[in-house]
Amino acid sequence: EPEVTQTPSHQVTQMGQEVILRCVPISNHLYFYWYRQILGQKVEFLVSFYNNEISEKSEIFDDQFSVERPDGSNFTLKIRSTKLEDSAMYFCASSGTAGELFFGEGSRLTVL
Amino acid sequence: SQQGEEDPQALSIQEGENATMNCSYKTSINNLQWYRQNSGRGLVHLILIRSNEREKHSGRLRVTLDTSKKSSSLLITASRAADTASYFCATDPFYGNNRLAFGKGNQVVVIP
User: Is residue B58 less than 8 Å (CB to CB) from chain A?
Assistant: First the structure.
């Protein structure tokens, strides 16, 4: 069964460092997303991406965040200068046209 | 029940019993989706119900939607130990960009 894969599963970084989280969406999907879940809190929308551009972003997704689809398979989330409050589980998701999202297992980011 | 400002609910039941959980929301929606999350894992899509539907079934799952009350319920019949997880509702807003708004979740424990 096709699945969304994310790497790394866990990353520990120092405050101020750049982090890149990687995702391989399901191959025939056209819509890509990043969500995050701070420990014990709700899953929050960050950004959606379609046709090689951001289609929507939340207030969380400020100038420190960027997304890219560098080739036909990868979808990345970059945090330029990490803050303590960026510590969270980051989920990549993709969808076709049916509306349901397929999520990866997540990348846990710990900022020290 | 789940809602933006309510605390998550916890439900503990015996194997074989039914589990019911509720979700309320505030805005107009295109559809409402339910997801399951096992501890530390990704979100798994369970079922999607559109705004013009009132009830939907999928295996042991039954979802209802009342748009006049802005609420939904998820029923898991004949629960199994493997159903132990957190269950989240997520609303897709009326303009349908798949910017899902998640509830805080219902933690269900099924005792064998």
Answer: no
Of the candidates A42, A48, A104, the beta carbon closest to that of B99 is on A48
Considering only the C-alpha atoms of chain A, give the largest distance between any 2 of them, rounded to a whole number of Å.
40
pLDDT digit string (tens) for B2-58?
544 344 588 999 999 999 999 999 888 889 999 999 988 899 999 999 999 999 999
List, for residues A14-29, the tens digit of each pLDDT value.
999 999 999 999 998 9
Mutate which of B99, B106, B107 to test chain A, going by most A C-beta atoms within 10 A? Answer: B99
Is there a contact between B92 and A99 if contact means CB atoms under 8 Å apart? yes
Measured distance CA(B41)–CA(B2) in Å, rounded: 20
* Number of neighbours of residue B60 by Cβ within 10 angstroms: 14
- Which tokens belong to A106? 């997540």
Looking up tokens 């997880």 gives B85
Tokens encoding B78: 């004949």
The tokens for A25 are 């969406």
DSSP state of A1: -
**Residues with Cβ within 8 Å of residue B109, at least 6 apart in sequence:** B10, B11, B12, B13, B84
* CB contact (8 A) between residue B42 and residue A103: yes
Residue B81's φ and ψ, nearest 5 degrees, are -55, -35
